[in-house]
Amino acid sequence: MMTRLYFHSIFAEHLTGPGHPERPERIQAVMAALEDEAFHLLDRCEAPEGSLESIYRCHPEHYVRRLATAVPEDGIIRLDSDTILSPKSFTAALHGVGAATAAVDAVMAKEADNVFVAARPPGHHAETATAMGFCLFNNAAIAARHAQAVHGLERVAIFDWDVHHGNGTQDIFWSDPSVLYCSTHQMPLYPGTGAKDEVGAGNIVNAPLSAGTGGGTFREAMNERILPALRSFRPELVIISAGFDAHYRDPLANLKFIDKDFDWATGEMLDIADRYAEGRLVSLLEGGYDLYGLSTSAAAHVKRLMTG
């Protein structure tokens, strides 16, 4: 398997202030793990800056302009209690968008079988016109829309295994059956969405998990709800919102996943991509706030992407 990695040093320059869980050390931990000899065949590319046109497919121009003008010259400002802007935040978010759309281009052009995007800030909480939950732009949603608008795909699937429900992705695609959004997540937990009866236009599949749940229950939820929905949908592209905060060490939640659970789930998504999408799979980093748990589980994920 040819796996491409998109990264940019700007991702470490999005500063969030002392004690904030979504901190530059997260991306540094992931990249350090991917320096191991096991990853020497990764096709490493610098994340380009994304276009405003690609963002406008998911977020209105007035929202983007409001974020751009809110960026401080120094220090930080809070958009809400936990969503931060610092001087390089907007530029970092633009490169996250650029990496997501470049990843789609790469798999569509068969330059890579699959792609992992190591970017921050994360994206899946960003609603159509609301920044929240550490997120500014919804990279997964923008990638899906890019695949449809630029490459003409009719069916794109997003599977979100972050421990927090991707309310933003659900919001953006709520009435659009051309995009399937599937999520496993702890519930109740921030942001409070993600119940089973939230189904949109029949294209939303939520599989909430109780606090204390381990990998066995996660696998049951995937086998009973997520994988059947994906097989029925027959996606032409698979996108993963790859948060690693369901890891048992993570301080922001109470699920009990281990590295092997992420490895297994990655294998299942590769199988879906192979069956229906000519192998095309794009994975985008979301959460994960214990540095050790984040680094080892992200490494397991990328290793499976590389080996199939």
Secondary structure elements and their pairing?
Layout: E1 3-7, H1 24-33, E2 43-46, H2 52-56, H3 61-70, E3 77-78, E4 84-85, H4 89-108, E5 114-117, H5 139-151, E6 156-160, H6 167-173, E7 179-186, E8 204-209, H7 215-233, E9 237-242, H8 259-276, E10 281-285, H9 291-307
Parallel strand pairs: 1-2, 1-5, 5-10, 6-7, 6-9, 7-8, 9-10
Antiparallel strand pairs: 3-4
Helix pairs in contact: 1-9, 4-5, 7-8, 8-9
Shape assignment: globular
Major sheet, described briefly?
8 strands, parallel
Regions with little confidence, pLDDT below 50 for 5+ residues:
none
Got a strand count? 10
Q: How far is the N terminus from the C terminus?
A: 7 Å
Which class best fits the helix and strand makeup? alpha/beta
Which strand order spans the largest sheet, edge to edge or round the barrel? 2-1-5-10-9-6-7-8
Task: Give me the Rg, rounded.
Answer: 17 Å
Kindly state the mean pLDDT as a whole number?
Answer: 98
User: Which percent range describes the beta-strand content?
Assistant: 15-25%
Q: How helical, in percent, are the residues?
A: 25-40%
Number of helices: 9
Output the helix-strand order: EHEHHEEHEHEHEEHEHEH
